[in-house]
């Protein structure tokens, strides 16, 4: 579904059209979940998706359409992730499960290459927040630089710079000399 159609569904949902609201969610849910998985704790992504939709639907009556509804929604998601991170830093985290890998496998969860996925997520999580947002929005979610600039409320050149620097940071973190130093 293209941005014009998503925006049209958002306007209809604001007027109470339940089918349009469902289509709006259906068209944006996957991208939204992907973004929130990388910008926050992957275990909290589902809850953050729900929080994003709660905030978005509450604000839909005031949505003016100055930007596509998808960009507007992703901007809300970015703020939801930031709020979550601020809140989680204030509270100590406890782990109720001794062996989370065994628990996940018992639940049927599996990934083709668990180690690489963990390393990738850790490296991305270690990026400076603005670089991580720009990198995830462009390289993981697949937004254009212009759309990412709109979501992040900055210039396209700033997004290009942040993505470039994020790539440099990731490449440096993956360099053999740095990996050997961190292991030894």
UniProtKB/TrEMBL annotation:
Entry-linked InterPro entries: RNA_pol_sigma-70-like, RNA_pol_sigma-70_dom, RNA_pol_sigma70_r2, RNA_pol_sigma70_r4_t2, RNA_pol_sigma_r2, RNA_pol_sigma_r3/r4-like, WH-like_DNA-bd_sf
KW Cell cycle (keyword) present: no
Record-annotated RNA polymerase sigma factor 70 region 4 type domain positions: 119-170
Cited Pfam families: Sigma70_r2, Sigma70_r4_2
Keywords: Sigma factor, Transcription, Transcription regulation
Domain spans labelled RNA polymerase sigma-70 region: 25-91
Recorded superkingdom: Bacteria
Alphabetized NCBIfam families for the sequence: sigma70-ECF
Family that this chain belongs to: Belongs to the sigma-70 factor family. ECF subfamily.
Listed name of the protein: RNA polymerase sigma-70 factor (ECF subfamily)
Biological source species: Amycolatopsis viridis
